[in-house]
């Protein structure tokens, strides 16, 4: 690698890419970094030393990437996201540095098992679910594709809570992910920035004689950046993820401390540091908490300041900002960045409003990730004005001008104008962040075709009517590096042997597997891989959770956050119904396809019904699992604390992927894509990206069921009465009655009464309406599974036709349709 590209550039130290070279570096880190010798080193010492050694091997590329970027000032993407659900870092770093074999051998020579050290890594759970994991996939793809980009987010001290089960009930524990050290981050306290809050706005006469307004914050905090490497696969760029940590501007008040009031002395410090203390655990249904708005403003203010003052060269003409950056707003969480950039340009740089708005409007693009009305963030004016008074003024002015523009276009339609106002008047006066984002953004995108269509037709229909060209779709994707190459080495090897390894960066090449679906020998080997993956998860579940499963059963898997709209209850009703029929002799056990029903799901701690559903799944599971007659036939496996690490072993083992949300509610889903790429067949509704999965894989290779979105809308309009389904469907009635009878709660009928009565009386997401269709689809699954060869053929076709769901393709769509950036390889 050419390290010196200009005479004036000093060389960057490199590492010898050999077993001996690695071993030397590793021992050096252990001795000089950890301060221990090999004989006394703990597993954590060895893990930390190895992690640091591995990151050294990526350092040249990182420094080179940063240097080139500073030199070229190529247009970049700043991905603003309150969540980055990274998962473990080590494997990805080993892959990106091409060190896997070297490290394994080098460690083995020292008597160390790489796998033991891999297990020591605590994953950074800085996200709730799909939205956060998507951000992590996107930055992986951007680095691999050599696109200049930076991720900006929050370094939560506590990530998504650790879930445990006590008597089947969810109990949350703080996720102290930093406690054993965090070798992947690079703190830069010297680059801290100050962020203000509260206070008031004042008028003053500027030097040029013009009367201006400025914000006088009441208090402020420091944002300390922590940099993470984002290494692209195979010699790609090493981009940066910059996460902000809040610190107090003053450690504590010495005078108060001296007077003996210790708690009071550190109060301000505690208050400031609370901002980045913990990730809010609500997925898709945010609560309008003040601290959450503080978090949002904190990280976007830090990021904009960082970009303008640090990343851009000194004296950069901000009128040209859109040539240099696009801020991608990952959902509404970072939307306060819009008035913040306006404030910087107007108040701090002294620009005219129109000038600033013209530039600001070109710098943002907005991705919406939801269809649930309760997930569209709205901030009461009272709260926003108290915390960010100047921003509220700016939002009002943006809105005033926008409404004036609308009145010109729709002079006789005041109703429409009010509907489109950024400020809602009811039930309290509040700022609609999705509307603000839509007004400011160059493009607004949904995350799957159906979702983008529903955004245009329903959620943001007035805006789509006004700005038809602003709206677009980018279907989500997942990184094949983490979710195939690393998590499913057996399948990766088989695929590479068949079609070469180009698929890792060009997933469309998987289509080369298509003819092999008809090759009996390939199918046999494909099945062997699946079987080995089932054995692997069987071992993991036994060791991790003490759960016994049988690798010879069909693995039927539903892993995602617990939410009513995702309808875990639908799957549960199917299981209960099956159990009821077997135990009452309505069907013979020999006729039941042996299945392992696997669940993984966290419920937001304040979401009472979701937690009751978790309890019910566990209760049904323990009844079924302790029935000796069902041993090896029906098993329910619900490991606690589903996270990225568990996903990486569970998904490759799945035969059947459950994607059963009510049509029109799941924006996209990304788990559905991971299952497909790992050779599971989907049972699913016509929702989110399922629609595209089914179109690509073909109807015959997908188990479709349930109401379509228009049918749902029609049924709800007509008036939905869940009890009618209970009354007319005998199987459903028996299943619900069994739960209500206390059969799964030691005879106590009260325990699950709320779940049952919610389904019977409310059932917001129409589980009962789709029950029969779901059960029928499951019967088709059984039938198909019985033909092993044909099932494998379909599974191979799922892999072969899944290339579209690479996050590399998503990135290409964003680049072509929204960002208009260009790749810049590190050494170019
Ligand atoms: C989500 C959607 O619910 C999910 O369907 C989508 O795949 C992801 C990523 O686009 O975004 N929206 C959301 O708030 N969360 C999601 O997972 N948490």
UniProtKB/TrEMBL annotation:
One of its GO terms (molecular function) is pyridoxal phosphate binding. The modification N6-(pyridoxal phosphate)lysine is found at residue 674. It comes from the Bacteria. It catalyses: [(1->4)-alpha-D-glucosyl](n) + phosphate = [(1->4)-alpha-D-glucosyl](n-1) + alpha-D-glucose 1-phosphate. Phosphorylase is an important allosteric enzyme in carbohydrate metabolism. Enzymes from different sources differ in their regulatory mechanisms and in their natural substrates. However, all known phosphorylases share catalytic and structural properties. Allosteric enzyme that catalyzes the rate-limiting step in glycogen catabolism, the phosphorolytic cleavage of glycogen to produce glucose-1-phosphate, and plays a central role in maintaining cellular and organismal glucose homeostasis. Its cofactor is pyridoxal 5'-phosphate. The keyword Glycosyltransferase applies. GO terms for cellular component: cytoplasm. Belongs to the glycogen phosphorylase family. NCBIfam families: P_ylase. GO terms for biological process: glycogen catabolic process. This is Alpha-1,4 glucan phosphorylase. The keyword Transferase applies. PANTHER family: GLYCOGEN PHOSPHORYLASE (PTHR11468), GLYCOGEN PHOSPHORYLASE, LIVER FORM (PTHR11468:SF3). Keywords: Carbohydrate metabolism, Glycogen metabolism, Glycosyltransferase, Pyridoxal phosphate, Transferase. Its EC number is 2.4.1.1. The lineage of its organism: Bacteria, Bacillati, Actinomycetota, Actinomycetes, Micrococcales.
């Amino acid at each position: 690698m050419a390290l010196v590209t200009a005479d004036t550039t000093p060389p960057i130290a490199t590492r010898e890419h050999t077993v001996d070279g690695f071993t030397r570096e590793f021992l050096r880190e252990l001795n000089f970094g950890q301060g221990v010798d090999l004989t006394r080193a703990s597993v954590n010492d060895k893990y930390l030393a190895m992690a640091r050694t591995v990151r050294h091997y990526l350092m040249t590329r990182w420094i080179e990437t940063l240097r080139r970027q500073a030199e070229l000032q190529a247009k970049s993407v700043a991905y603003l996201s309150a969540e980055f659900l990274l998962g473990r870092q080590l494997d990805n770093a080993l892959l990106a540095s091409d060190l896997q074999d070297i490290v394994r051998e080098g460690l083995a020579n020292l008597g160390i098992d790489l796998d033991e050290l891999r297990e020591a890594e605590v994953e950074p759970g800085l996200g709730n679910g799909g939205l956060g994991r998507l951000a992590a996939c996107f930055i992986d793809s951007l680095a691999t594709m050599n696109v200049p980009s930076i991720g900006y987010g929050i370094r939560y001290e506590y990530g998504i809570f650790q879930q445990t089960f006590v008597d089947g009930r969810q109990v949350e524990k703080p996720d102290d992910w930093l406690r054993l050290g965090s070798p992947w981050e690079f703190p830069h306290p010297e680059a801290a920035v100050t962020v203000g809050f509260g206070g008031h706005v004042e008028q003053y006469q500027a030097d040029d004689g013009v009367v201006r307004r400025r914000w006088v914050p009441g208090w402020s905090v420091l944002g300390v950046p922590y940099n993470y490497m984002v290494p692209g696969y195979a010699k790609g760029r090493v981009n940066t993820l910059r996460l902000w940590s809040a610190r107090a501007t003053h450690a504590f008040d010495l005078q108060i401390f001296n007077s003996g009031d210790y708690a009071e002395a550190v109060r301000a410090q505690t208050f400031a540091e609370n901002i980045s203390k913990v990730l809010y655990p609500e997925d898709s249904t945010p609560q309008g908490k003040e601290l959450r708005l503080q978090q949002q403003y904190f990280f976007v203010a830090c990021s904009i300041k960082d970009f303008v003052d640090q990343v851009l060269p000194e004296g950069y003409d901000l009128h040209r900002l859109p040539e240099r950056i696009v801020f991608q707003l990952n959902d509404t969480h970072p939307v306060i960045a819009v008035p913040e950039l306006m404030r910087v340009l107007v108040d701090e740089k002294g620009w005219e409003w129109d000038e600033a708005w013209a530039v600001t409007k070109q710098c943002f693009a907005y991705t919406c990730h939801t269809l649930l009305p309760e997930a569209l963030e709205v901030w009461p004016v009272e709260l926003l004005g108290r915390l960010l008074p100047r921003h509220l003024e700016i939002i009002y002015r943006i809105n005033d001008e926008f409404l004036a523009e609308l009145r010109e276009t729709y002079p006789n339609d005041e109703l429409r104008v009010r509907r489109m106002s950024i400020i809602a008047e009811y039930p309290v006066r509040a700022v609609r962040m999705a509307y603000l984002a839509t007004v400011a953004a160059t493009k607004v995108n949904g995350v799957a075709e159906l979702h983008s269509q529903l955004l245009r037709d329903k959620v943001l229909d007035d805006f789509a009517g006004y700005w038809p060209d602003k709206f677009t779709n980018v279907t989500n994707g997942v990184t094949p590096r983490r979710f195939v190459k690393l998590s499913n080495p057996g399948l990766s090897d088989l695929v590479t042997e068949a079609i070469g390894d180009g698929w890792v960066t060009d997933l469309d090449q998987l289509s080369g597997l298509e003819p092999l679906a008809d090759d009996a020998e390939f199918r046999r080997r494909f099945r062997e891989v699946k079987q080995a993956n089932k054995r692997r998860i069987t071992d993991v579940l036994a060791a991790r959770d003490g759960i016994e499963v049988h690798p010879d059963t069909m693995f039927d898997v539903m892993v995602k956050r617990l939410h009513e709209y995702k309808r875990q209850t639908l799957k549960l009703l199917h299981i209960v119904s099956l159990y009821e029929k077997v135990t009452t002799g309505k069907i013979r056990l020999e006729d039941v396809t042996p299945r392992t029903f696997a669940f993984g799901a966290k419920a937001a701690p304040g979401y009472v019904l979701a937690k009751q559903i978790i309890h019910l799944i566990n209760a049904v599971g323990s009844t079924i699992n302790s029935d000796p007659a069902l041993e090896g036939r029906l098993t329910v496996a619900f490991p606690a604390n589903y996270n990225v690490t568990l996903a990486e072993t569970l998904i490759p083992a799945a035969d059947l992927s459950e994607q059963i949300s009510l049509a029109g509610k799941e924006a996209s889903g990304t788990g559905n894509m991971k299952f497909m790429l790992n050779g599971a067949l989907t049972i699913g509704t016509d929702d989110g990206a399922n629609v595209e999965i089914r179109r690509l894989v073909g109807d015959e290779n997908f188990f479709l069921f349930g109401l379509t979105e228009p049918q749902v809308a029609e049924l709800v309009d007509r008036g939905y009465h869940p009890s009618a389904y209970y009354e007319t469907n005998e199987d459903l009635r028996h299943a619900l009655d069994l739960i209500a009878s206390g059969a799964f709660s030691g005879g106590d009928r009260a325990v699950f009464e709320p779940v049952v009565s919610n389904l019977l009386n409310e059932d917001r997401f129409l589980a009962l309406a789709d029950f029969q269709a779901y059960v029928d689809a499951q019967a088709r699954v059984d039938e198909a599974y019985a033909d092993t060869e044909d099932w494998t053929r379909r599974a191979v076709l799922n892999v072969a036709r899944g290339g579209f769901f690479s996050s590399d393709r998503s990135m290409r769509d964003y680049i072509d349709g929204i960002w208009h950036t260009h790749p810049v390889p590190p050494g170019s």
